[in-house]
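User: Please run a holo structure prediction.
Assistant: Happy to. Please share the sequence and the ligand.
User: Here you go; the ligand is iron/sulfur cluster.
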Amino acid sequence: MSPKTLYDKIWDAHVAHEAEDGTCLLYIDRHLVHEVTSPQAFEGLRMAGRKVRAPEKTIAVPDHNVPTTEGREDPAQMTEESRIQVQALDKNARDFGIHYYPVSDIRQGIVHIVGPEQGWTLPGMTVVCGDSHTATHGAFGALAHGIGTSEVEHVLATQTLIQKKSKNMKVEITGKLNPGVTAKDITLAVIGKTGTAGGTGYVIEYCGEAIRDLSMEGRMTVCNMAIEGGARAGLIAPDQKTFDYVQGRPHAPKGAQWEAALAWWKTLYSDDDAHWDKVVTIKGEDIAPVVTWGTSPEDVLPITATVPAPEDFKGGKVEAARRSLDYMGLTPGQKLSDIEIDTVFIGSCTNGRIEDLRAAAEIVKGKKIKVKRAMVVPGSGLVRAQAEEEGLADIFREAGFEWRLAGCSMCLAMNPDQLQPGERCAATSNRNFEGRQGRGGRTHLLSPAMAAAAAITGKLTDVRELM
Amino acid sequence: MDKFEKLQGIAAPMPLINIDTDMIIPKVFLKTIKRSGLGVNLFDEMRYDADGNENPYFVLNKPQYRDAEILVAGDNFGCGSSREHAPWAIKDFGIKCVISTSFADIFFNNCFKNGILPIVLPQEQVDILMKDAEKGQNARMTVDLEAQEITTSDGEVIPFEVDSFKKHCLLNGLDDIGLTMEKAAAIDAFETRAAQSRPWV
Ligand code: SF4
């Protein structure tokens, strides 16, 4: 047999039909659904008189525009439109008989955190969701990607997607990371190097010692932002850490099924001489704690650097950089570590897991915030409960952070958590686009530890100085 | 779905690179449970000021481009979220074809599901089309999907590539779900095989 990549292996195991021109029907093992991108899809099903083909493989949770403040079960806490979307999901989940975690359920949270937490996401699966950060699940060696609403409807009706195969790209992070450098810095550094379109047309497999050394939480952070690099999906081959994480979760296989699953999962790696269409290698020790300065996730620099000038770039990027700097209110040559911050947001499917909260709490412990506002929004009700048990919630509260309920919150600011025009935010989320966190809001992306450092000092700060 | 055959129309130039889905349709407009009505909010934050007044400098607000049906855009158009509201808004505005050097993957797919033709061309050719679009109202461009050719207002012909299956669906206005359902036997067979080989799924 010819050597295969991990992506090749998962792909081959899921082709239900292949047309002569290579267009395939890819079978979908798990379909995750949230309230924003699904109403039109369910409506389409109803209009055509179609059913959900595999309701037992379909999981719904409201996350994008739910409030993250106490008492949110009260519908009066939501705007009319948000309420309609959440109620539509409630109704659709019930009518079509799919798994559902309402806001009143402690297991509710951001869809990409709930899936792995509940053991819905397993190695070797195909996982889709009407959300671009579905790539997160790739950390388990699952082929996971975002789809549009028409495709959500297609998967609901047929449990397949019409797909053509992407190309294979290998991103290797060699060696060890330096202290203060995290999974978030890796993933931002990769995008900084390859650009936001560098992965277009590819599925990326992340490998190398620095990736192996990451926890499952860290691997999810890395894969989560594969989409910001333009890739269809990000993957990491499963290993003992993956199996240990999965074992015992509510929907993970048990007994003889576990053994059978494990036997297959252990074959899920890229063969030594597999073909790669593109290879990028970065030395782990070359990665520094980074922040973004502009309005594209590729606008990444080490915290020790200065704000660049538009002339430092080429082609269309010159104008884009000028526009970014204007929007961000920054001057070329200014030190990144001199930039003052108004708001700190710790959360999102990129960095809203327990390990992220631990890393932030370690920096915050015993100190007070110097920013106007800082909030921690755990990725799920279970993450929140665990953080409370470990005493992290108290650390945050005592420092002056708001301690919120689970949801997407200020990652995309569809709920009431929004920046004001001109307000500057250090955020652990994944997008710094214009207006992403509120019209006119200015976002700097960074790791949870770096966000915590900014909260304590009131400006972007090299976390290594606080360690 | 509407058929896409041949389009002759005004092309609007948007040379900015990395136009993301938050720019195309900001999230405040994602709260709808319908597919229609998003056209007035296309490019909302660039098109209107905070009070809702039109920005006269924004290309689609200029008299000569208000009826544009083609968009010529900078690299990496449609990056960001999976929101299909982006192509819905584009379609609702009246734009049926977007031309760029590259598109984000999900956005690209979403276009085809909504009768919009995204065309990828090398930089030099996008530059030619950008110049042509800058001429304004009288510069009508023609996009012929069957022949896979764009003709500028000067009569210059630029061929383009398109996936054969996607082309077939666009030309005939075919609904993907209906097509896939015709292959139900293959899906059934796959499920039976998978139940044997991966019963834990
Ligand atoms: S946390 Fe942000 S990126 Fe993640 S699913 Fe929610 S809105 Fe999307």
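Chain B touches chain A through 56 residues (CB under 8 Å).
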